[in-house]
């Protein structure tokens, strides 16, 4: 079908959240800033054709759920914190087929000069 959406992706870039994840005691005590990027695979055909918010995934709700999942219980590893986000989003939105979560520490406890370190995971809905 020419001109039809084949696959849609909703993205959130650079959501900045303060949380207490990390291995070191000072990370757990003082926390740090993280930058989170999300990419949600969603069927956007109905939303694009009907121009109706109910047919898509609300970005505001995505960021609120991400904040709630990420800023909850501290994790030793950002891998675990990223998985918390992915699971929360899949649970909250039946329309999401898969989610890619990238979590970056923007001021990691590393002596080298760098922009950020972190992880990226992709989690698909179980069929």
Structural overview:
The protein starts with 7 loop residues before the first strand and ends with a strand. The chain is built from four helices and four strands; from the N terminus they run βαβαααββ. By secondary structure, it is an alpha+beta fold. The chain is elongated. Helix content is 31%, strand content 32%. The protein has helices at 25-30, 45-50, 59-70, 78-92; strands spanning 8-19, 32-42, 96-105, 117-124. The chain has a four-stranded antiparallel β-sheet with strand order 1-2-3-4, covered by helices on one side. Helix 3 crosses helix 4.
Overall residue-averaged pLDDT value:
92
Query: Which shape, going by the Cα principal axes?
Result: elongated
**The biggest beta sheet, please?**
4 strands, antiparallel
Number of helices: 4
Order of helices and strands: EHEHHHEE
Number of strands: 4
Helix content: 25-40%
Termini Cα gap: 26 Å
User: What share of residues are in beta strands?
Assistant: 25-35%
Strand order of the biggest β-sheet: 1-2-3-4
Structural class: alpha+beta
Instruction: Please mark out the parts with pLDDT under 50 across 5 or more consecutive residues, or reply none.
Output: none
Radius of gyration from CA coordinates: 16 Å
């Amino acid at each position: 079908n020419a001109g039809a959406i084949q696959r849609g992706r909703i993205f959130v870039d650079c959501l900045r959240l303060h949380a207490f994840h990390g291995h070191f005691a000072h990370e757990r005590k003082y926390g740090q800033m993280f930058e989170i990027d999300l990419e949600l695979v969603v069927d956007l055909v109905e939303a694009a054709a009907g121009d109706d918010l109910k047919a898509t995934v609300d970005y505001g709700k995505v960021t609120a759920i991400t904040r709630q999942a990420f800023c909850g219980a501290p994790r030793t590893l950002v891998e675990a914190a990223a998985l918390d986000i992915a699971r929360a989003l899949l649970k909250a939105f039946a329309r999401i087929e898969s989610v890619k979560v990238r979590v970056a520490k923007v001021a990691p406890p590393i002596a080298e000069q760098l922009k950020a370190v972190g992880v990226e995971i992709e989690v698909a809905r179980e069929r």
